[in-house]
Amino acid sequence: MKRFFKLFSIFSLLVVLSLTLTGLASAETIRGQGWLYAKGNGTATLRMSGQVEIKGQGVGAVYIYGAEEINAEGQGKRTNLNGGGVVFRGYSGTITVTGEKMVVKMVGTKIEFKASGQGVAHLRGRGYYETAHLRGDWNNRGFEIEVVAD
């Protein structure tokens, strides 16, 4: 019985590790020039310097860390987080975020944003994206788009 449990444990560990490595190997990196527009459902995480304009449809949440300026016009719940972050939940309207080395994470349905500047966006779910030279679809594995300043 001990031997069976040991073999089962090793097999389970190998399966988990192979799934993790498959996820890492399937990640894509795409380079966009200067700006990124995206619309969809799922998760969008941006690590960048520049400006992000988010159109809230009253569904989901927007987490913001490290922004120098946050302007929000509309309705919804804004909560200041420990450590200087801000979260907007159920927000209808426009949120404009500006800063250096900031993180903006959008979770839910009806995600829509335009980011300009330099950094990396990770998109996971269903939707589409567009840059100055590229257009494509989100996927459930997730992928990164590197945004390079003009």
3D structure, described in words:
The termini are far apart. Strand 5 and strand 6 form a beta hairpin. This protein has one domain. About 16% of the residues have low confidence. With 150 residues, it is an alpha+beta fold. Strands 1, 2, 3, 4, 5, 6 and 7 form a 7-stranded mixed β-sheet that branches.
Defining traits:
single chain; 150 residues; alpha+beta; 7-stranded mixed beta sheet; 16% helix; globular
Number of domains: 1
H/I helix tally: 1
Order of helices and strands: HEEEEEEE
Radius of gyration (CA) equals 18 Å
Low-confidence stretches: 4-27
Give the biggest sheet.
7 strands, mixed
Structural class of the secondary structure composition?
Answer: alpha+beta
Strand fraction equals over 45%
Average residue-wise pLDDT = 83
**Distance between termini?**
64 Å
Shape by Cα distribution: globular
Helix content: 10-25%
**Number of β-strand runs:** 7
